[in-house]
Amino acid sequence: xxxxxxxxxxxxxxxxxxxxxxxxxxxxxxxxxxxxxxxxxxxxxxxxxxxxxxxxxxxxxxxxxxxxxxxxxxxxxxxxxxxxxxxxxxxxxxxxxxxxxxxxxxxxxxxxxxxxxxxxxxxxxxxxxxxxxxxxxxxxxxxxxxxxxxxxxxxxxxxxxxxxxxxxxxxxxxxxxxxxxxxxxxxxxxxxxxxxxxxxxxxxxxxxxxxxxxxxxxxxxxxx
Length: 224
Ligand code: E4P
Hints:
Layout: E1 2-6, H1 10-18, E2 24-26, H2 29-35, H3 39-49, E3 54-57, H4 63-76, E4 80-85, H5 88-99, E5 104-109, H6 112-120, E6 125-128, H7 130-135, H8 140-154, E7 159-162, H9 168-177, E8 181-184, H10 186-191, H11 196-209, H12 216-219
Parallel strand pairs: 1-2, 1-8, 2-3, 3-4, 4-5, 5-6, 6-7, 7-8
Helix pairs in contact: 1-3, 4-5, 6-8, 8-9
Bound molecules: erythose-4-phosphate (E4P).
The site of erythose-4-phosphate has 11 residues, from helix 7.
């Protein structure tokens, strides 16, 4: 499963990219607004850091406007993916953009039927919003399982991009349900590394190491 970072915070993107686990970025209008920077310059910075798919959201609500924005986003950089809301006008635009070879990420997906329609229109990615579903008493993990089954039954190539993730359990559910990608905030990516037994165990080893006599191997320069 690929991992994307879901933010437009440049410092966080730079740091997570340095860890070597990030494959791409997803942004949305909220992230752009929270970055405190203008749209063009924040995009330039993100594309200069990450070499992988970067989703940029369209903001028009009719197909014509979405297609025009999608073409501009695609022309901006070869790694650009056009994010489009799952609605009639959005999917009309996705179909046109797909025919032009422009990659799309259909967003705000909350049902397997929406995922089916997005795949029919040639979406590159479909983004089910896991945590927002869990918050209203539904089961985001179950949604991914249903989507996986539908796509496998009919041979759709659209990639399932688990979005709106707020817990390591939701990442695990995404992995077990066969999501192709998961996107999440910086803090969630960092949380994936953590386990209290790892921290306790490391502390114990470091404390015990203090009782070991000085070592030439660790104190002399490598190769010296
Ligand atoms: C995904 O592409 C979205 O940007 C994101 O996951 C939005 O969901 P959230 O605001 O619930 O995190």
